[in-house]
C-alpha cells in the first residue's frame, strides 16, 4: 500500500553523474537496460552484472542530454564507480559523485512517474519501488517528518526489494530476484554479462532459487534463522521487520506454502512484479 502522506526516508541513495560526449554510449554498452533511445528526462531502472552474468549492482539511470545520473542505494556508490571506472578506456567520460544535499521522499510527492527534472544542483527524480512511491531530491531539504528505520525496512520488504550483500550477493542470478522484467532489455545490443541472462530467458527463466516474502504467524524471527519446509532446509531469513521477511528460497517453495522460520510458522508470498494496483504481492503496510 502506498503511504498516505510523504515522509523523508531515514537514509538517502547516492547519485553519480557520468558526463561527456561518450557518457550515454559508454553506459549503454555495459548496463542491462536500454538508455540509448531514452528521452532526456526519463528514468529507467537497470542492473550492472559481472562478466559471468551474476548481480553486481542495481540502480536507476537518469537520462540527460550528454549526461546520465545513476542512483544507487546508500553505501554502494564507491563500489559502482570503481567497477565502471575500470571500463573507461579511450572514451570522453567524467565521473562525479554527489556527496551531499540528497534526500529521499517516500509516499506521495511531486515527482512524475518515470521522469526526472531539474539539473545536477537541484532535481527531483522518480526512483519508486513497485509498491512504494519514492522521490530523490537534490538541493533544498524537504520540510517533512522522518520515517523511522523499522517502518522504512517494512516498506522495502513488502515491496520485495533486496539489499545487495544481504538478500542477494554477487553469486545471485538476476532471474532469482524478480527484478529482471523492469531492469533488463532483451532487445538492445550486447551488455556486460548478457549471455547468462539471455540464455535463461530463452529457456523460460528456470532458476534454482527465488526471492520470496515471508509473512509470520506471530512475532518476527531472528535474522539468519533457518527456513524449513517438509523437514528440509530451503533457505535462511535475510531481512525482517514487523512480522514480514525476505529470503531467497530454493526452487519448489511456492507462494501459499507454509514454512517454519526458526520456531515460527510463515506463509510464503511472491514478490510484487507489477504496479501498486496488483495484489499478487499481498497486503502492504500502512504507516
What is the fold named in CATH at topology level of the largest domain? Answer: Gyrase A, domain 2
- CATH evolutionary superfamily of the largest domain: Probable tRNA modification gtpase trme, domain 1
Overall structural domain count = 2
Unreliable stretches, pLDDT < 50, 5 or more residues? 275-287
Give the N-terminus to C-terminus distance in angstroms.
Answer: 9 Å
> Rough shape?
globular
Descriptive notes:
The structure is a single chain. The C terminus is likely disordered. Helix content is 13%, strand content 31%. The strands form 3 sheets. The chain has a 7-stranded antiparallel β-sheet, covered by helices on one side. Strands 1-7-10-9-8 form a 5-stranded antiparallel β-sheet, with no helix packed on it. The protein has 2 domains: 149 residues, Probable tRNA modification gtpase trme, domain 1 (Gyrase A, domain 2, 2-Layer Sandwich), CATH 3.30.1360.120; 64 residues, Aminomethyltransferase beta-barrel domains (Elongation Factor Tu (Ef-tu), domain 3, Beta Barrel), CATH 2.40.30. It is globular, with a radius of gyration of 19 Å. The protein is an alpha+beta fold and 287 residues long. It contains 5 helices and 17 strands.
Amino acid at each position: 500500500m502506498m503511504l498516505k502522506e510523504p515522509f523523508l526516508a531515514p537514509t538517502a541513495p547516492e547519485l553519480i553523474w557520468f558526463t561527456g560526449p561518450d557518457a550515454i554510449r559508454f553506459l549503454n554498452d555495459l548496463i542491462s537496460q536500454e538508455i540509448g533511445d531514452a528521452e532526456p528526462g526519463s528514468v529507467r531502472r537497470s542492473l550492472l552484472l559481472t562478466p559471468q552474468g551474476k548481480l553486481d549492482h542495481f540502480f536507476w539511470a537518469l537520462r540527460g542530454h550528454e549526461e546520465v545520473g545513476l542512483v544507487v542505494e546508500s553505501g554502494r556508490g564507491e563500489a559502482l564507480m570503481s567497477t565502471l571506472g575500470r571500463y573507461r578506456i579511450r572514451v570522453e567520460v567524467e565521473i562525479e559523485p554527489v556527496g551531499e544535499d540528497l534526500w529521499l521522499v517516500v509516499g506521495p510527492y511531486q515527482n512524475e512517474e518515470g521522469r526526472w527534472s531539474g539539473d545536477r544542483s537541484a532535481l527531483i527524480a522518480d526512483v519508486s519501488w513497485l509498491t512504494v512511491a519514492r522521490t530523490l531530491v537534490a538541493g533544498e531539504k524537504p520540510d517533512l517528518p522522518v520515517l523511522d528505520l523499522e517502518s522504512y525496512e517494512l516498506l522495502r520488504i513488502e515491496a520485495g526489494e533486496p539489499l545487495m550483500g544481504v538478500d542477494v550477493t554477487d553469486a545471485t542470478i538476476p532471474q532469482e530476484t524478480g527484478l529482471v522484467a523492469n531492469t533488463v532489455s532483451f532487445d538492445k545490443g550486447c551488455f556486460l554479462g548478457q549471455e547468462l541472462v539471455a540464455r535463461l530467458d530463452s529457456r523460460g527463466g528456470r532458476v534454482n532459487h527465488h526471492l520470496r516474502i515471508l509473512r509470520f504467524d506471530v512475532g518476527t524471527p531472528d535474522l539468519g534463522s533457518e527456513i524449513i519446509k517438509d523437514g528440509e532446509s530451503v533457505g535462511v531469513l535475510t531481512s525482517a521487520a514487523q512480522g514480514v521477511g525476505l529470503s531467497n528460497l530454493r526452487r519448489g517453495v511456492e507462494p501459499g506454502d507454509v514454512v517454519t522460520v526458526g520456531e515460527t510458522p510463515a506463509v510464503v508470498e511472491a514478490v510484487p512484479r507489477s504496479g501498486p494496483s496488483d495484489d499478487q504481492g499481498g497486503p502492504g503496510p500502512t504507516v
